[in-house]
Amino acid sequence: MMNSVHTIAFDADDTLWVNETYFYEAESAFCELFKDELPNERVSEELFTTEMKNLQLYGYGVKGFMLCMIETAGKLSSGTDHASLTRRIIEIGHELLQKPVELLDGVAETLDYLKDRYRLVVATKGDLLDQERKLKKSGLQEYFHHIEIMSDKKTDDYEKLIRHLDCNPENFLMVGNSIKSDILPVLETGGYAAHIPYHITWTHEHHEEKPGSERFKEFKNIRDILDYV
Q1: N or C: which end of the chain has fewer CB within 10 A?
Q2: HSE of 10 in the Cβ direction (CA atoms, 13 Å)?
Q3: pLDDT tens digits for range 87-121
């Protein structure tokens, strides 16, 4: 399996470094703003509804998340000082943007082993400036031939990336933590895909059913890739 692969692309958030944990903490801080009025579950549901409504406008990332928190606060607050709420939400967003970049277990040594044997690529969603910041802070830039910060991860987005890399699908492997975004679209292109679960998954990325394709593999840790390439 994967003997034909010469290009390996990695998702960044929750594949190379911690991300969703920080968003979860920020959402919890947002819910706390309404603790005397509404249960956390209700606030989270309203925020998620706002995020889904605005996803095509804002895309993925912290800035869109901040705007959605502000909009949701406007819906949920009653008689509260809106200026004070907005200031606190912006603080939560700024704190999120300044979180440290914490590499996941096994990442650095795995990339170090692969870098001279394969063409390595980052293929991730999110805000351009924020993802560039995290990549720079991570110390991983030297390992990658190409960085692709994508507005979305659908089949045609991967097809465009594969063409840009002058690569055939059967020579391409995508590694990521989301079945929905990192695995299924790549399998549809004819490429290979490896799933490394992360303990927290954003509701929008939930997908329970595992693919039955022979081009799919599931790993417990990024190091497991070394047994298959």
Answers
A1: N
A2: 29
A3: 999 999 999 999 999 999 999 999 999 999 999 99
Bridging pattern class, strands 172-176 and 216-218:
unpaired
pTM higher than 0.70 for the full model? Answer: yes
Render pLDDT for 21-38 as a digit per residue (tens, 0 to 9): 999 999 999 999 999 889
Cβ atoms within 10 Å of 81's Cβ, excluding its own: 10
30, two tokens: 């947002």
Nearest one of 182, 191, 185 to 215, comparing CA atoms: 191
Cα–Cα distance for residue pair 68/209, rounded to 1 Å: 29
Q: Is 99 helix (H, G, I), strand (E, B) or coil?
A: coil
Q: In angstroms, what CA-CA distances link 195 with 60, 139, 218?
A: 21, 23, 5
Q: Which position has the token pair 């039955």? A: 212
CA dihedral 140, 12, 63, 34 (to 10 degrees): -120
